[in-house]
């Protein structure tokens, strides 16, 4: 008899708002070759000589604005998701962060200590990006190799257009949008460098080769973050019945000088206000838990710049967090796995025949 377990993966927060803790977290985050993908010596120079001397202080201040009495919102919300999830299932559920604590290796160890030998992996990212979904999974699989190479594992694919996820998003937004009392709903996704899209295109012949590449059927979309974000928006507005003039898709949180996915959220919010849009709602579907990027960058900085540019009413619609519809949706995925609806990763290669 095998023993099943679930691991939820997210990116993580610093342990506290102390500059030293934020520096340690940023070093781990930015030395990840899937986040800053320059060759190691250049990455080392960028991180240690250009970013770490100043950014930890600025980031620590930003974290202090959103920090709760008992810790980081991202960690606390993720733990609440874990608890809500565990209540729905009768198997162990652990939470592992890519950077910082609780660590992915520790979460795996806890599951193995409980005798788990069949693991369902749930990256809490609806969209595939090298710097979110991929790095979290690769990091876990390195821990699996170290701790129990023969562990049976099954991976939940990105769920960016799954009707259950879209339905949970629509229900979350409903109290804010159902009266139609807004000029624009902005879907703001965490950005990535444009270069990452091209790098992640397995066909080497699609992403960003034409302006509307994301609307053309192509196998590259299995790993195309921009396509997957656009699909989330398309499915959402179809389900919510929103006309084209009522919404926009933008990308936030850029870092460095190279071009990231556009349009940029910060510039768009100012432009919207300048064009006379008085009431704006923003939702951030790339995050399943509220965090620095939603609570500080959007709900504080975004609000300030929108109001300063002439806007009057601004709302950041909360992420899915521990909303019952979202937890039910994920619990349904676990039940599908338990019912054998996912293929296992084990495949027997054909015998090698010498010619
Ligand atoms: C959709 C999810 C995310 C993608 C894609 C992503 C890409 C990405 N991020 C950075 C740089 C930073 N991100 C930081 C924090 C952070 N990012 C995400 C999600 C995605 N990042 C989360 C959930 C968080 C954690 C927020 C929290 O509440 O703790 C940070 C640290 C904070 C700061 O100093 O701004 C950095 C730095 C890059 C460069 C990148 C793509 C290449
Ligand atoms: Fe990020
Ligand atoms: Fe694309």
From TrEMBL:
<keyword id="KW-0350">Heme biosynthesis</keyword>
<protein>
    <recommendedName>
        <fullName>Ferrochelatase</fullName>
        <ecNumber>4.98.1.1</ecNumber>
    </recommendedName>
</protein>
<dbReference type="GO" id="GO:0005737">
    <property type="term" value="C:cytoplasm"/>
</dbReference>
<keyword id="KW-0408">Iron</keyword>
<comment type="similarity">
    <text>Belongs to the ferrochelatase family.</text>
</comment>
<feature type="binding site">
    <location>
        <position position="293"/>
    </location>
    <ligand>
        <name>Fe(2+)</name>
    </ligand>
</feature>
<keyword id="KW-0963">Cytoplasm</keyword>
<keyword id="KW-0456">Lyase</keyword>
<dbReference type="InterPro" id="IPR001015">
    <property type="entry name" value="Ferrochelatase"/>
</dbReference>
<comment type="function">
    <text>Catalyzes the ferrous insertion into protoporphyrin IX.</text>
</comment>
<comment type="pathway">
    <text>Porphyrin-containing compound metabolism; protoheme biosynthesis; protoheme from protoporphyrin-IX: step 1/1.</text>
</comment>
<keyword id="KW-0479">Metal-binding</keyword>
<dbReference type="InterPro" id="IPR033644">
    <property type="entry name" value="Ferrochelatase_C"/>
</dbReference>
<dbReference type="GO" id="GO:0006783">
    <property type="term" value="P:heme biosynthetic process"/>
</dbReference>
<keyword id="KW-0627">Porphyrin biosynthesis</keyword>
<dbReference type="GO" id="GO:0004325">
    <property type="term" value="F:ferrochelatase activity"/>
</dbReference>
<dbReference type="GO" id="GO:0046872">
    <property type="term" value="F:metal ion binding"/>
</dbReference>
<dbReference type="Pfam" id="PF00762">
    <property type="entry name" value="Ferrochelatase"/>
</dbReference>
<feature type="binding site">
    <location>
        <position position="190"/>
    </location>
    <ligand>
        <name>Fe(2+)</name>
    </ligand>
</feature>
<dbReference type="InterPro" id="IPR033659">
    <property type="entry name" value="Ferrochelatase_N"/>
</dbReference>
């Amino acid at each position: 008899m095998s023993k099943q377990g679930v691991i939820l993966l997210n990116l993580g927060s610093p342990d506290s708002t102390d500059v030293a803790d934020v520096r340690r977290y940023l070093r781990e985050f930015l030395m990840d070759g899937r986040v800053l993908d320059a060759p190691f010596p250049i990455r080392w120079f960028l991180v240690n000589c250009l970013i770490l001397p100043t950014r930890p202080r600025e980031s620590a201040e930003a974290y202090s604005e959103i920090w709760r009495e008992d810790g980081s919102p991202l960690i606390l919300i993720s733990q609440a998701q874990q608890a809500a999830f565990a209540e729905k299932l009768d198997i162990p559920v652990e939470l592992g962060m890519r950077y910082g604590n609780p660590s992915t290796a520790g979460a795996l160890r806890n599951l193995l200590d409980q005798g788990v030998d069949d693991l369902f992996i749930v990256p809490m990212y609806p969209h595939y990006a090298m710097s979110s979904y991929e790095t979290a999974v690769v990091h876990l699989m390195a821990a699996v190799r170290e701790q129990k190479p023969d562990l049976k594992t099954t991976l939940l694919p990105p769920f960016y257009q799954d009707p259950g996820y879209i339905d949970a998003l629509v229900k979350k937004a409903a109290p804010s949008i159902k009266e139609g009392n807004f000029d624009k709903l902005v879907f703001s996704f965490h950005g990535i460098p444009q270069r990452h899209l091209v790098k992640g295109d397995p066909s080497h012949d699609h992403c960003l080769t034409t302006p509307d590449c994301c609307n053309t059927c192509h196998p590259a979309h299995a790993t195309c973050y921009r396509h997957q974000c656009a699909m989330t928006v398309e499915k959402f507005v179809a389900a919510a019945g929103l006309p084209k003039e009522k919404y926009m898709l933008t990308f936030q949180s850029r870092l460095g000088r190279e071009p990231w996915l556009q349009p940029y959220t910060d510039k768009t919010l100012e432009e919207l206000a300048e064009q006379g849009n008085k009431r704006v709602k923003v939702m951030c579907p790339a995050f399943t838990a509220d965090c620095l990027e939603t609570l500080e960058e959007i709900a504080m900085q975004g609000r300030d710049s929108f109001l300063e540019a002439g806007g009057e009413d601004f709302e950041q619609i909360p992420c899915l967090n521990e909303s019952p519809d979202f937890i039910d949706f994920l619990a349904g995925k676990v039940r599908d796995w338990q019912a054998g609806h996912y293929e296992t990763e084990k495949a027997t290669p054909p015998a090698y025949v010498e010619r």
